[in-house]
Amino acid sequence: MIVEQLSLVDFRNYAAADVSLQAGPNVFVGRNGQGKTNLAEAIAYFATLGSHRVSTDAPMVRRGADAAIVRARLAYGTRSIVLEVQVNKQGANKARVNGSSLRPAELPRYAQVVLFAPEDLQIVRGDPSARRRFIDQLLIQRTPRLAGVLSDYDRVLRQRNALLKSARARGIRGDQLSTLEVWDDKLIALGAEVIDARSALTGELATPLTHAYAAIAGADHEPELDWARSIDGADPEEGTGEMDAAAGGLTSERFRAALATRRTAELDRGLTLVGPHRDDLVLRLRGLPVKGYASHGESWSMALGLRLASAELLRAQSMLGDPIVILDDVFAELDADRRERLAGLVADYEQVIVTAAVEPDIPTALRAHVVRVEAGTIVDPELSTNITEQGSTDG
């Protein structure tokens, strides 16, 4: 799979852009603030339905505009399609495939992207939400239907929390709040599916992660993945990871039992304390948690290993061909050895898109086609057509 053409309207600092890309490496070089990362972000949006830099869509719409348009022509061998998404500051987004409307949640069926960025270090060192986000975005690419499940779970969670807050304000106790059981049923049905899907995906990532980590680090530090689940007694959001090691039975049954156990605490706090929104992906090297124990180099190797493992998983199981690999300002963060190792691992993907502030940061293996971004303009007769960036200095 490759992106042949990318068009933007009112996206980030682009009033309008129309960029042609090719198979193999595509490199955008320029000073910070020229919009290189915005191009990467736009391409990845089709696959992940989100940004790797912000948690909401509004910042992706250019200042003064109400909506942004991102359009891409993708090629799968000799076949091509045109994807389009309208990202709205307010209200639901809209999407099209070859001109026909569809739900935005369906877009990942047509595009698969693995994006490496400096923000990936937060997967390893950040709070649990960064790790949940990493897994959920990969889930959506593997099984696009789960985008709707995750969205429905978040909606039910917000409504249940609103009910708990209202009950707390009115001094209502658990046995007086019969309507909570209705929301419990919905939360359990959706949440159990999310928990089981995450667990299955984590198991599939284990072997490719081991191989990818060793390839990047040049050593096998025994990387491991596991989940600390709130339905089994952990509360990663509050720093406690102890689980009931003997927990068994159906996920939905354990979820319901956990909600019953925490009912009083939830009413006291006006907050749902059990569910996949409270879980954490635990990363270990040599049996120790990466967060707090791993060196900077080991942390980077783990973050890169997770992305490479994702790419290999998508590559092995996709009917669309290779995922598009994007390396966004990654090489400046790595030492020379890891740069060369990473370049060697991704060079044979169908399409690799690289952004960098300076060309020497880019390994030779990925310099097949270099385009320079200067003074807010990308100028290359083979790769673009009079692209002018306007507005802020995003990217």
Automatic annotation (TrEMBL):
The keyword DNA damage applies. It is found in: Cytoplasm. One of its GO terms (biological process) is double-strand break repair. Residues 3-363 form the RecF/RecN/SMC N-terminal domain. GO terms for molecular function: ATP binding; single-stranded DNA binding. It comes from the Bacteria. Keywords: ATP-binding, Cytoplasm, DNA damage, DNA repair, DNA replication, DNA-binding, Nucleotide-binding, SOS response. Gene3D superfamilies: P-loop containing nucleotide triphosphate hydrolases, RecF/RecN/SMC, N-terminal domain. PANTHER family: DNA REPLICATION AND REPAIR PROTEIN RECF. Belongs to the RecF family. HAMAP family: RecF. The RecF protein is involved in DNA metabolism; it is required for DNA replication and normal SOS inducibility. RecF binds preferentially to single-stranded, linear DNA. It also seems to bind ATP. This is DNA replication and repair protein RecF. It comes from Microbacterium protaetiae. The gene is recF.
